[in-house]
Write a structure and sequence with these properties.
32% strand; 719 residues; TIM Barrel; binds calcium ion; 7-stranded parallel beta sheet; single chain; 10-stranded antiparallel beta sheet; binds 1-deoxynojirimycin; alpha+beta; globular
């Protein structure tokens, strides 16, 4: 019986649907979707410029204690429509975004066998939106008699590849995306997994050919394909499990504590499954497909949402120089009613004097906010938590004067940024939220960096399950009621929800700069993240490290940041985010004030973005125009190889002459041996200028441009 099923499946997978009943094309005709029901099983396929991108692939869901939504379907009705609208994001890579697609809606009827006719009919709609840069599709479950509450055992959406593509992947995991990327053939994933990821607890439950999305792929013919999801709401996060004999990816949802993968109640819908495609890697970076598939902004008034450039009492804890905790005593030995009785460890970072120092630095150099981590009680045993009530989010340590420090910051035109480490105790956080937000309002905070380190409580839930996903959204919408912006670390990787809830100004959900202080990240890391993690929304990557050798901060820390200073500068442009941190210590910036000038100048919100050159895993060059000004900023990063890039300034206004300041790797710069070698050149450029710029190994370059004035007359043209 099993063999028959396998043969049947194989037949279904191989059958061409070139005679498909239903087709839809993108507005420019280059991307096409085909849909049909073959032997009762729904199938789709995608082509780009006539070439297969996704071969015929099945669609459906397996249910628990119920007949599955996998077969016995027939096509009832298909509807086509078109949509073209330009919308204005609250913040973004450009000031307007065009949402232009052709839609195919297929209404399916399922007849459940062995049921009386009246009880047998169920309905599922699959909606395809076909864009010039790819396709989104989702399952919709309309209001109906015979399908109301149902539990998902697994979603069976397939993405059948045309060959053994190159993949830029991180391993499947229900709780974290904080991995270095692997670049390999699809056929190599299994064996790499075996050697690289053994013993990782959250993966034992997972397949060894499981990978996370957003997944970037490249075919031997030079097609760039990206698979992800959009609008992940009230559903589990999707991973992809690879059948590495046939190169077919199958959706693999995150289970809950019972192993179930989703609880749905019709009418409802799944998130969008997305496939971007182009023969130009720059198109993948410029794509707005994920944002476009999300719902419009849910807030009428967005005037309180503002991009933020910030510094923070943070890197000193990350590198181990100072501590989050006030005391080294375990919490059981602390009198919680009077923390000042506990012996201080003398290394607490969030103390009044130190915080003041950061406020002064922020004010002097034009930063909006100062993040202070470790300000509140509970850090003594937060990571080894055995109970779920570690933090209350309202009680400061005795050496952090919340009132005075906020007043001091405000008097200098700076705000403090709140920090809520939940330690994964999500219910505890929800319980304390009202009081925590009230405290913030009282002292004038308008943004939170939150975090979900460690196993989720309630026990058995995962960071990427439906339950946790609902929590993250609850935190965002509750914060919005208080006009508070949220930057959540260790939450599920984003899927474009920042369009609907633009107070979600950042997420981590990938390996950020902090890992440079733990083990060091591969130099190609930031040439991949914009293709993958950043597809769903901005990342609080926390760039700006100027001193790469961590032992200079903490002799016990042997880690090293695998980049040059110019690479760090470029990240403010290549890693798009409306929230940017200057992560290093003030005293390090003071040593390199000329290079630091770029971080002071660079914008965090944009009118236009132009991707000039890109290859995943190798390099990215992008130019962006500051919102509401004529200033431009350009950033370029390379991987572990040095390379020469020609920058063509034809994106500039033809009628303006600009003063360009170029921050480039020095002659002998090298991430491993000479990361702080750089040269800064200033001169005039126009839209006709072309410049060759060399990037060192692990290096990069940054350029700021502003319209020239009479005072700049004596400057030379750059060549
Ligand atoms: C992990 C976050 O990514 C990091 O930025 C933060 O400092 C720690 N958690 C503590 O909350
Ligand atoms: Ca983290």
């Amino acid at each position: 019986m099993k063999r028959v099923a396998i043969i049947l499946m194989a037949l279904v997978c191989c059958a061409s649907i070139s005679q498909a009943k239903e087709k839809q094309s993108s507005p420019n005709g280059k991307v096409k979707v085909e849909f049909d029901v073959v032997d009762g099983i729904p199938q789709y396929a995608i082509t780009y410029k006539g070439k297969d991108v996704i071969k015929p692939s099945r669609l459906g869901l397996e249910l628990i204690n119920d007949y599955s939504l996998l077969d016995n379907f027939k096509l009832k009705k298909a509807k086509k429509s078109s949509f073209d609208e330009t919308w204005t994001p609250v913040w973004g890579e450009s000031s307007t975004i065009r949402n232009n697609y052709n839609e195919l809606e297929v209404q399916l009827e399922q007849i459940v066998p062995d049921k009386p006719k009246k009880e047998a009919r169920r309905y599922v709609t699959i909606r395809f939106r076909v864009y010039n840069d790819g396709v989104g599709f989702r399952y919709e479950f309309p209001d109906q008699e015979n399908l109301t509450y149902f539990t998902v055992k697994e979603e069976h959406t397939e993405f059948a590849m045309t060959g053994d593509h190159t993949a830029y992947w991180i391993p499947g995991d229900y709780d974290t995306q904080e991995y270095d990327y692997v670049v390999s053939r699809l056929s190599e994933i299994g064996s790499i997994f075996d050697t690289a990821y053994t013993g990782n607890a959250s993966q034992t439950a997972f397949s060894k050919t499981g990978v996370q999305t957003s997944l970037q792929l490249k075919t031997d013919e030079g097609l760039y394909i990206n698979i992800h999801e959009a609008a992940l709401v009230d559903y589990s996060c999707m991973h992809l499990n690879l059948d590495d004999k046939n190169f077919v990816f199958r959706s693999w949802l995150t289970p809950d504590a019972r192993g179930n993968k989703g609880y749905l109640q019709a009418p409802c819908k799944s998130p969008w499954r997305t496939v971007m495609v182009s023969d130009d890697a720059c198109d993948i970076l410029a794509s707005n497909l994920i944002l476009n598939l999300n719902e419009p902004c849910a807030f009428e008034d967005t005037s309180w949402i503002k991009p933020i450039k910030y510094v923070g009492v943070w890197w000193e804890m990350i590198t181990g120089k100072s501590t989050w905790a006030y005391t080294d005593l375990p919490s059981v030995q602390i009198d919680k009613t009077d923390y000042s009785k506990a012996k201080p460890n003398g290394r607490h970072g969030a103390n009044n004097e130190n915080v003041k120092r950061y406020i002064d630095f922020a004010a002097e150099h034009g930063f909006d906010q100062v993040l202070v981590e470790g300000w509140n009680v509970g850090w003594e045993d937060w990571s080894g938590k055995t109970k779920d009530y570690v933090f209350d989010f309202v009680t400061p340590y005795p050496d952090f004067d919340i009132e005075k420090l906020n007043k001091y910051a405000h008097s200098k035109g700076v705000r403090l940024m709140m920090h809520h480490e939940t330690s994964g105790s999500t219910r505890n956080y929800e319980r304390h939220m009202p009081a925590a937000f009230e405290l913030m309002k009282k002292y004038g905070y308008n943004s939170i960096k939150s975090g979900y380190v460690g196993d989720i409580l309630p026990r058995g839930e995962h960071h990427y399950g439906q339950w946790s996903n609902n929590h993250y959204l609850y935190a965002i919408t509750e914060a919005a009621k208080h006009h508070i912006m949220v930057n959540a670390h260790e939450a599920v990787r984003p899927t474009g929800l920042c369009r609907t809830y633009p107070n979600l100004i950042g997420n981590e959900s990938a390996r950020g700069t902090e890992h440079q202080a733990f083990t060091g990240s591969h130099p190609h890391h930031t040439t991949i993240l914009p293709f993958t993690r950043l597809q769903g929304g901005p990342m609080d990557y926390t760039p700006g490290i100027f001193v790469m050798d961590m032992s200079k901060i903490n002799p016990e820390n042997g880690s090293y940041c695998n980049t040059t200073i110019c690479n760090q500068l470029a990240l403010y442009v290549t890693m798009y985010s409306p929230l940017q941190m200057a992560a290093d210590l003030p005293e390090h910036y003071e040593k390199y004030m000329d290079a630091f000038q770029f971080i002071k100048d660079v914008a965090v919100d944009w009118d236009e973005s132009h991707y000039l050159a890109a290859e995943p895993g190798d390099y990215i060059v992008v130019a962006r125009k500051e919102k509401g000004s004529d200033n431009w900023f350009v950033g370029g990063v390379t991987d572990e190889n040095e390379r020469e890039m020609e920058v063509n300034f034809d994106f500039l206004d033809k009628n303006i002459r600009y003063v360009a300041t170029i921050y480039a790797d020095g002659k002998n710069a090298d991430y491993a041996t000479k990361p702080d070698s750089y040269q800064i050149k200033t001169g005039l450029v126009t839209s006709k200028t072309k410049l060759e710029i060399k990037m060192a190994r692990g290096g990069g370059f940054a350029i700021s441009l502003r319209p020239a004035t009479d005072a700049d007359k004596k400057l030379k043209n750059l060549k």
